[in-house]
# Entry
Amino acid sequence: MNKIFAFFITVFLLASAAAIGLWLTGNLPGIGQEKSEGSTVLVGVPQIGGSFSLINHKGETVTDEDYKGKFLLIFFGFTNCPDVCPTEMQTISLALQELGDDASEVVPVFVTVDPARDTPDIMAEFVAAFHPSIVGLTGSEEAISDVKKKYRVYSQKQNNDDPDYYLVDHTSFTYLMGRDGDLITVFSYGVSAEEMASKIREQL
Ligand code: NI
# Structure
C-alpha cells in the first residue's frame, strides 16, 4: 500500500476511534447529555442496542426477546482479560448484591468479543466466578460482530502470532438497557458499585 495513503487511513481510524470514545463518554460538544458522577445519560443520539441472537453459557440460543421486560446490564469483553473485564464484572456483582431483591429485575450480561476462544463452557466458568445470575453470551464471529456494531463496541485483537495466547483491546462501557430494550445509560469503566446500583434503582 502507498505509504501516504496508509498514513491517512491510520489518521482517519485514530480520529474515528477518539470521536466514538468521546461520544460514548459524553464529552463531544453538541450532543444533548445530562452528566452525573460515573455515568452519562445520552439524549437525542443515534440508537444503541437492538436485536441479537447468541449462545448463552449453557449452550442455548437466546435472543433479545428473551430478556424483554427485564433491565439488561451489558458488558463486552473477553474471559482471558487480565484486568478490565474481571474488575468490571466484580463491580457488576457488587452492584447486584447492593440491589438485594431488586436484582431479580436485572439480567447482567457478559458478551464476549473473543468468540474464537470463549466457548459456552469457558463462558460458564468465567461468569460463575462473579455472580450466579450473570449470563455469558458468545456466538459466531458474524453474530458477535453484529451485536458489537449495534452497541458501538470497538475491539481489536493485539498483534500476536500465537492463536492461543493473545490480548484483545476493547471498549469497556457497561450499558443499562430498559425493559423495552432502549438504552437508559452508559457506565464508564471505574464506576462504583454503589453508583451503578443507585442508577438502576432509580429506574425500578
Ligand atoms: Ni477486558
Notes: The first strand starts at residue 33 and ends at 36.
